[in-house]
Amino acid sequence: xxxxxxxxxxxxxxxxxxxxxxxxxxxxxxxxxxxxxxxxxxxxxxxxxxxxxxxxxxxxxxxxxxxxxxxxxxxxxxxxxxxxxxxxxxxxxxxxxxxxxxxxxxxxxxxxxxxxxxxxxxxxxxxxxxxxxxxxxxxxxxxxxxxxxxxxxxxxxxxxxxxxxxxxxxxxxxxxxxxxxxxxxxxxxxxxxxxxxxxxxxxxxxxxxxxxxxxxxxxxxxxxxxxxxxxxxxxxxxxxxxxxxxxxxxxxxxxxxxxxxxxxxxxxxxxxxxxxxxxxxxxxxxxxxxxxxxxxxxxxxxxxxxxxxxxxxxxxxxxxxxxx
Length: 324
Fold this sequence. Notes:
The structure is a single chain. The termini are far apart. By secondary structure, this protein is an alpha/beta fold. The chain contains nine helices and 13 strands. The radius of gyration is 27 Å and the shape is extended. Mean pLDDT is about 75; it is low at about 1-20, about 230-240 and about 295-324.
């Protein structure tokens, strides 16, 4: 009788998601089905709002797939819903997987070794740039606050909502945490959706990181060193001597070392190789576009209007403000 109760409790915890099972301990039987996996993911992602990024990453090691019906029906449905599918094959290239990624604007990669597999997997971490046809809508978000004192006294002990129903990691009483600005519920980690009022709780760094991935800085134009004018870069250099320097780090560029320079198509400034890598991989913002008056720092999100001056692609309001 006790064994039956234990099995029922274990089954309940499995259904409610409290039981964590390692995939290495799961015995695999029967034939793999790519279509069944895609249908399950499609059913889950259909409820995701259209302004969100919906993606499926498939890691497959089999060379065959045993599907109940025509898999093209599922692929057409994924394409219709705008769900991006990427496939990482552990064995070899599979035609149906390649066709899936081509139809859904995803990526396909066949793994060569463990290092290549890690590179393929890590390339899926960053979200893709926002599509031009993506539906835009306003999302209510809250910036939670912390309470160290209440009316001159220490904050009372309380439990966080994110662990209050978790049997594996029960919540502990504490005075610290992130409090929802709408219903005052406490959470220990961000980002999270408030279980009481449904408000999305985030912090400013979370929004900044999401913004950088959705709207990346366009690649700079590669040009030979000879095409760089002596008047480019810092305004304090010696123009008569023909000194050419990087606009970001003000390093003097030499034709022997810096054979290739990089030019921003919006602010028209030149950068060295190190600054180009730093801007695109770490800073996520062009130095020239964000420091030159009259040049919109976020201009790469917009299309330059015809008839506007290419030297200063900022808005007309900014031109009047800075006398351009």
